[in-house]
Amino acid sequence: MNIKVINVDPDILxxxxxxxxxxxxxxxxxxxxxxxxxxxxxxxxxxxxxxxxAIAVLTIAEEVLTSSKFEAIYETIA
Length: 78
Known about the structure:
By secondary structure, the chain is mainly α.
């Protein structure tokens, strides 16, 4: 499935990356997981985010963090 998952629009939360079609920041997913909140509970807290979107964001994060280009990517944000 090839769905657009992340939206960055200066008119939505000042350009903060959000789940496509919502005003829910991507960061909220990681904050919840970091706090030990289960994915199902995150989805319950943010019903406008679909399970497919949340899984896709986690997959993107995995691909970035396991990429052979990780060091170059990390250097641009560090």
